[in-house]
Inverse folding.
């Protein structure tokens, strides 16, 4: 993937490219206007190149969104999940149980990241629907997030281990940093606004008693 001009990257990362298919034209016009407004006159010669790059990235985001990128998807078929991990360069899989509080928190963070990182496929599966993989991958504690690079596991997050500094919670930015280290994200894209997006619902979840995260 070619390097993106920092000005273009900043605008793209502040938006959610490809998220609203019906407003693509308006979104692109607004981003181009912001790009030109933000541009330093000394770099006027670069404007056209930046415009073209922004247009290309928005089109690429739209195409990948059509292929289920840019969203966090729940998969119900084990074979489909195996096909996804072996056919996608970067993939993040959440093995979970929907009634576990910690799994719900992980779901929320992965949804936020999926909207930003459309190059990476983000999926979740109920462990009840993946008996073969649960045994093969030796999944015993939930939530369990496995980052796949070209079909090979590059990192495994068990519970909330190794994410942030709080034992019972973490931010999407902290999860992003962990996945960046695993090599399954292109670059850091999160900001403070993104971390606040679901804070209210997460605070409600934290008030509830934690479910036991041992699973067998």
């Amino acid at each position: 993937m070619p390097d993106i001009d920092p000005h273009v990257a900043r605008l793209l990362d502040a938006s959610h490219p490809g998220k609203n298919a019906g407003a693509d034209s308006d979104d692109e016009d607004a981003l181009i206007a912001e790009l030109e407004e933000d541009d330093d006159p000394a770099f006027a010669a670069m404007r056209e190149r930046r415009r073209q790059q922004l247009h290309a990235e928005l089109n690429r985001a739209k195409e990948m969104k059509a292929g289920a990128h840019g969203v966090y998807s729940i998969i119900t078929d084990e074979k489909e999940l195996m096909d996804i991990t072996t056919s996608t360069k970067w993939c993040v899989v959440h093995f979970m149980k929907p009634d576990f509080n910690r799994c719900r928190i992980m779901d929320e963070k992965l949804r936020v990241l999926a909207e930003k990182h459309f190059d990476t496929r983000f999926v979740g599966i109920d462990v009840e629907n993946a008996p073969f993989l649960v045994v093969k991958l030796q999944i015993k504690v939930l939530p369990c997030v496995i980052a796949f690079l070209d079909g090979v596991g590059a990192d495994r997050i068990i519970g909330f281990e190794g994410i942030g500094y709080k034992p019972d919670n973490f931010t999407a930015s902290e999860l992003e940093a962990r996945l960046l280290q695993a090599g399954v994200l292109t670059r850091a894209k999160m900001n403070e606004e993104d971390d606040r997006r679901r804070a209210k619902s997460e605070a409600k979840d934290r008030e509830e008693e934690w479910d036991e995260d041992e699973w067998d």
